[in-house]
Design a protein that fits this description.
234 residues; globular; alpha+beta; five-stranded antiparallel sheet
Length: 234
């Protein structure tokens, strides 16, 4: 009888610990689920803003180029040679959606001449949005600046539920050494050979139904633990 009582107490304690751990996993799951762009309808625009991007309290002046696409992990990049203004052949960017990552690569620098460099002093940049409203709301956007253009400021990246703004104000990518100590953006350690790449890692809030099903499962487990193990009359 004593052994059975001790066994019941141990089982109950282990069950409570397991329930607590699963609750913590639920909290982590709800807060840090990865976005998955594959198959989603996305819009990418090049925009000029007043003082800052709309995500940071500024306002839109003009969108000079816009592309809507279905993101696909099978394509790399999803957009090749994205124009900062329609029809030009300089200041071009590749835009690539892979899983929960968006990579922006300044490709004009590969031409290696003075017409294919950039320096943006006013508020300009990318506006990336969920065109089909098929994604869960964006919860966070972290920025990998390992090989970003010179003076790119990750603090100027902003987002809301369906939109991401990437301001390039103050950043630059030069082929040759410029005056004032502005270094060229070549970098032998970069996978592209240049500091010309901005990587965004996006997480989203899970669909309510997914979180609800998980919560119901944990609730059922909690009820089972509180009842404790059953014993036969014999």
């Amino acid at each position: 009888m004593l052994k059975q009582s001790l066994s019941s107490k141990v089982s109950l304690r282990v069950g409570r610990i397991a329930l607590a751990l699963q609750f913590l996993l639920l909290v982590a799951f709800v807060g840090t689920a990865n976005a998955n762009f594959d198959g989603s309808s996305m819009t990418v625009s090049w925009e000029f803003w007043n003082t800052a991007s709309p995500g940071q309290g500024g306002s839109l002046i003009a969108a000079t180029d816009t592309t809507t696409l279905t993101a696909s992990d099978a394509n790399s990049p999803d957009i090749s040679g994205f124009h900062t203004s329609t029809g030009n052949d300089f200041e071009l960017w590749d835009v690539d959606f892979q899983g929960d990552t968006i990579t922006l690569t300044y490709t004009s620098i590969y031409a290696q001449d003075h017409d294919h460099q950039y320096m943006y002093m006013m508020p300009v940049g990318f506006h990336i949005s969920d065109a089909g409203a098929g994604l869960s709301p964006f919860a966070s956007v972290s920025v990998d600046t390992s090989f970003a253009p010179m003076n790119f400021d990750p603090a100027k990246v902003a987002f809301d539920d369906d939109d991401i703004w990437v301001s390039l104000q103050g950043s630059m990518c030069h082929y040759d050494m410029m005056g004032g100590g502005m270094m060229p953006c070549d970098n032998a350690l970069s996978p592209t050979g240049y500091n010309n790449q901005i990587v965004l890692n996006v997480s989203s809030v899970p669909e309510p139904t997914t979180a609800a099903l998980l919560f119901l499962g944990l609730t059922g487990l909690g009820v089972s633990v509180r009842r404790g193990p059953s014993h036969s009359a014999g």
